């Protein structure tokens, strides 16, 4: 098998919150990275990164960018767009890239999915990879992410890994939970109104990027048993989550840093956990605990890093 320094890894959304950190993690492993972006000059500035500008849903561009690659990591989802756009880019576009990767000889497609595909209603309990998925009324983002996963399950000729994180903590101007959500909480009471006992399931972006990079470089080998590794030639989901936390912990940190009061209610709430035992059995161990992640959040807000 080729060494990691010989591997060419394609990363879509390479200038994004998760994509940029994944590129850095891959570079640390000695891989060469083809960074797929939509605008020129925005790819991470690393010696091992080659910028490719284009739309991965275009069959010709997809075939060109994956030619000779070892693996593909997809991190793009147009969250916040209308459902038609999310469907076109994610549900229709991602399988185009996956099929091109398989036809081009790539061994793996590592897809950044989300734990939002799971039904996390008040009675759901703990959620592992066999848990029920959301229904069609769950909202544009969960439904289109669910449907992207289903579309990738129908692609053949390549090992597909669906990585499902919950809230992703970590600093950055496009970070939802360290930047965008706190901004909303500063403006609107409804944004920091919640049941304090509701679960806040999370993972740190750097720990997530480590898993994505380990999967793409095959540091985590395939297996015939999904509890020991991704199914060789199959489509395997894997949850990834940090330590347990509640909305009280997250909201208290944000509102305390912003100087506003949290608003608690006693509405129905999910109090289970995202079970990441499969990822742990594959060899992944998060390095950043809840206290460290929340302190990073607090310090970032206090120092104005959310601007």
From TrEMBL:
Q: Which GO terms describe its cellular component?
A: cytoplasm
List, alphabetically, the InterPro entries matched. Epimerase_deHydtase (IPR001509), NAD(P)-bd_dom_sf (IPR036291), NAD(P)-dependent_oxidoreduct (IPR051783)
Where does the secretion signal sit in this chain? Answer: none
GO molecular-function annotation terms? aldehyde dehydrogenase (NAD+) activity
Query: Per the UniProt entry, what species is this protein from, by scientific name?
Result: Mycolicibacterium psychrotolerans
Under the heading PANTHER family, the entry gives: NAD(P)-BINDING DOMAIN-CONTAINING PROTEIN-RELATED (PTHR48079:SF6), PROTEIN YEEZ (PTHR48079)
Q: Which domain of life is it from?
A: Bacteria
The NAD-dependent epimerase/dehydratase domain covers 9-217
Put simply, this protein is called NAD-dependent epimerase/dehydratase domain-containing protein
Q: Which Pfam families match?
A: Epimerase
């Amino acid at each position: 098998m080729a060494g990691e320094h010989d591997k060419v890894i394609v990363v879509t959304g390479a200038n994004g919150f998760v994509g940029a950190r994944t590129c850095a993690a891959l570079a640390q492993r000695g891989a060469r990275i083809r960074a797929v972006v939509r605008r020129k000059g925005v790819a991470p500035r690393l010696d091992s990164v080659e910028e490719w500008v284009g739309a991965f849903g275009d069959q010709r561009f997809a075939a060109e960018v994956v030619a000779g690659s070892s693996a593909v990591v997809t991190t793009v989802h147009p969250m916040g767009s209308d459902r038609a756009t999310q469907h076109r880019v994610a549900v229709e576009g991602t399988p185009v890239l996956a099929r091109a990767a398989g036809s081009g000889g790539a061994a793996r497609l590592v897809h950044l999915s989300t734990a939002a595909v799971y039904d996390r209603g008040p009675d759901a309990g703990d959620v592992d990879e066999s848990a029920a998925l959301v229904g069609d009324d769950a909202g544009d983002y969960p439904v289109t992410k669910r449907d992207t996963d289903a579309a990738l399950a129908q692609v053949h000729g390549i090992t597909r890994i669906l990585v499902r994180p919950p809230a992703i903590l970590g600093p950055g101007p496009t970070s939802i939970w360290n930047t965008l959500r706190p901004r909303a909480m500063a403006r609107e009471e409804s944004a920091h109104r919640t049941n304090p006992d509701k679960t806040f399931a999370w993972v740190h972006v750097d720990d997530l990027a480590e898993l994505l990079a380990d999967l793409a470089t095959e540091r985590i080998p395939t297996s015939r048993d999904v509890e020991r590794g991704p199914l060789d030639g199959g489509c395997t989901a894997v949850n990834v989550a940090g330590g347990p936390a509640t909305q009280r912990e997250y909201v208290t940190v944000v509102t305390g840093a912003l100087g506003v009061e949290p608003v608690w209610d006693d509405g129905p709430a999910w109090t289970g956990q995202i079970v990441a035992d499969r990822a742990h059995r594959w060899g992944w161990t998060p390095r950043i605990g809840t206290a460290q992640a929340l302190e990073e959040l607090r310090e970032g807000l206090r120092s104005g890093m959310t601007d």
